[in-house]
Amino acid sequence: MIYTVTFNPAIDYVIHMERLERGSVNRTTGELIQFGGKGINVSTVLGNLGVENVALGFLAGFTGDAIQQGLTQGGVRTDFIRLSQGLTRINVKIKAGDETDINGTGPAIGEKDLEALYQKLDQLQKGDILVLAGSIPATLPSDIYERILERLYGRDILPVVDAERDLLCNVLKYHPFLIKPNNFELGAIFDRVLETDEEIQDCAAQLQARGARNVLVSMAAKGAILLDETGTFHKIAAPDGVVRNSVGAGDSMVAGFLAGWLQSKDYQFALRMGSATGSATAFSDGLATKEQVEAVLKTF
To answer: What integer pLDDT is reported at residue 34 of this predicted model?
Structure first.
């Protein structure tokens, strides 16, 4: 079973405009509501691909109710912890030529709430996959990913971590099954601007030497590079298509990679599936459906 954790879910209110004028009344040309947070995105796309999973995390207030209802209607299996105070955040994504994001803060998560999550994670079984993705709310310890993986270490659970800088690097000693920085995040870890495949491969190898089993580096229009646990590098070009949406593309790549790996246990196929799924989301207004992924798979 795959479990995802989203510490700070959100309702993403995506609006399209011809242009954004500060200090004026602006009108939208299109609107879209998405239930977001990186873990939730992974769960949604896994569900779209027919892969059973459970979304864990924290919800609060009427906005949390909306997320719960929307995910349930979408067929996503959930086991969220309800917070007694606060509101699950709303993020506004303004697409007016450039993309502008206004992200909410989200509710406070207390010690008792965190302990309730630990109790759920203690129920994971050998071979289960746990996806930890995204930033950490200010009310939580900055080393929460590290604490979780330390708690689960030695139980043959397969962690997947999609995070930046120290949040990612500090868990490498627990040998995560997969980490997925993009090329800019990877360069930031080493205070470098990575311009060539060889530079990306070098940095990926260093993270593997520090404990990661598989390192998947997304590079947007330049495709993706995978260093698998056998020490083999794989590269795949990005499929052709018109990018319409960047929200959730990386999360979709994680979901597609896991779906492909579970299906085949073949890393080259997992990379191809991950690339197709991430691209299918980028080419659409929402998160990729199975039909969209299959259509992209036929093109490369």
So the answer is: 86
Residues 183-215: tens digit of each pLDDT: 999 999 999 999 899 999 999 999 999 999 999
Sign of the Cα torsion 33, 39, 40, 42 reads positive
pLDDT of residue 277: 97
Scanning the chain, the segments in alpha helix (DSSP H) are 38-48, 61-73, 111-121, 144-152, 165-169, 183-189, 197-209, 249-264, 267-282, 290-297
Q: Which of 98, 128, 251, 266 is catalytic?
A: 251
Q: Which CATH superfamily is domain 2-297 in?
A: Ribokinase (3.40.1190.20)
Note the Cα 43 to chain centre separation in Å: 9
DSSP 88: -
Dihedral sign computed on CA atoms, order 28, 293, 225, 174: positive
Structural Rg of the chain based on CA atoms: 19
CA distances from 110 to 89, 96, 137, 141, 298 (A): 17, 38, 11, 11, 47
Share in percent of the chain as helix, strand, coil (round to 5):
40, 25, 40
Give yes or no: 251 in active site: yes
Question: What is the Cα–Cα distance from 275 to 90, expressed in whole angstroms?
Answer: 29
The model's confidence at residue 237, banded by pLDDT at 50, 70 and 90, is very high
The mean per-residue pLDDT over the stretch 112-126 comes to 96
